[in-house]
Amino acid sequence: MEAASGRVLVVDDSEVIRRLIRVNLELEGFEVVTAADGAECLEVVRGVAPDVITLDVVMPRLDGLRTAARLRAAYDTAHLPIAIVSACTPADLERGESVGVDGYLAKPFDPADLVALVGRLCEQARTAVPGRRRFAYDFGAMPQVPAQTGRDSALGEQAQELVRPEEPRP
User: Fold this and answer.
1) What is the CATH number of the domain that holds 82?
2) What is the pTM of this model?
């Protein structure tokens, strides 16, 4: 196997999904560590030092959106790219964006889309400008927010459609 492209912490309560994600990412050279729920993620994240975290939304003990919010609130994990890999409602997408999730992949997913998303997030982490967040897998065509607001992206008043990674951006 070639050198790892990055370390990914995969968080999902389904062992089958964790294995599916692990196999697909490891085949592409990623190192994968798993956790069964958000609480376990928060216990291991600092020791694992991942480049990217993928989170399911519906999990016992601590769901993915609350986990993402806690990761963003902690100084040492606030910079980590986070992708939701889950069957979400539009409300979950809005909450995910509001807590700082960087990308979304709907279940069931194409393994190639998973690899592409994680690869973009790893690259984003390597080239990140301190203090500025970018989205690797957009939550739709988002309005530009003036720099003085302090937010690089925000949902408008209406829900946004997802843009698949292979589609050209407007």
Assistant:
1) 3.40.50.2300
2) 0.73
